[in-house]
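Thread: S-adenosylmethionine complex, take 2
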Amino acid sequence: MDEAVRGLSASTTRYQLWTEFLQTKRVESMAEIGVYRGRFAAEVLSACDSIRTYYMVDPWRHLDDWNKPSNTDDSRFATYLAETEANTEFAADKRVILRGTTLEVIDQIPDASLDFAYVDGDHTLRGISIDLINVWPKVRTGGWIGGDDFAHTMWQHGDRFEPTLVFPFAVYFAEAVGARIFALPHQQFLICKEPGFEFVDLTDSYPDTTLQGQFRLKRVLRGWLTDTIGILRSERRRTPPAKSATHSDQA
Ligand SMILES: C[S@@+](CC[C@H](N)C(=O)[O-])C[C@H]1O[C@@H](n2cnc3c(N)ncnc32)[C@H](O)[C@@H]1O
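Output below.
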């Protein structure tokens, strides 16, 4: 197995995971689907000096057909776009802002031009299907698709919202196109655009890829706990230590 991928298991946050991967692979052209306030983009652009082109795909507007907690109103989305522009101003010559849904703007990215795409937009079954199917031809052979919210339970946001189905759909997609897919820490996944399907769970925390498993109460509770504890841990690691913290707290 690619040592760079195996090494991702030791990452302490998703930002560290992807910046190390992108630096190691010397990624030059990439896209982010679902940019929101530009935090991920800013981290990646400041840490990865190999990047020459960074496409930012996001409608930055309210979507009537997207029932997820991040779907806010148009005016707030306008401030998020301004925040993204300010956060990534230092890399203005590298970024290409494509304001629209994946289906509205994806054709502006040439086929087989991307080394890497990060899928973090609409995580519903409809959204992840549209994103993976449309992004796949944009990635060159030997390139990668990464993504967020490979959640252990589709009830990530409770039953008031549409389920999150990045997992297991991304695994089914990888099987359909005949590519290897890795489950990584921090609810991340990585698909390698090379022939040969295999699901490699580097976290040892996805016991099966069935949809039926998603309806078992024990699985739902275990999945919810795994994801919640993981999020709390990585947020703690990102929070700067308080002034009164002891030396061992900071280690
Ligand atoms: C979870 S946020 C992205 C967070 C960001 N990647 C980060 O790590 O900082 C999800 C974003 O997906 C966008 N989105 C929702 N539906 C979309 C679609 N159909 N196409 C592209 N982006 C979409 C939303 O506008 C929102 O900004």
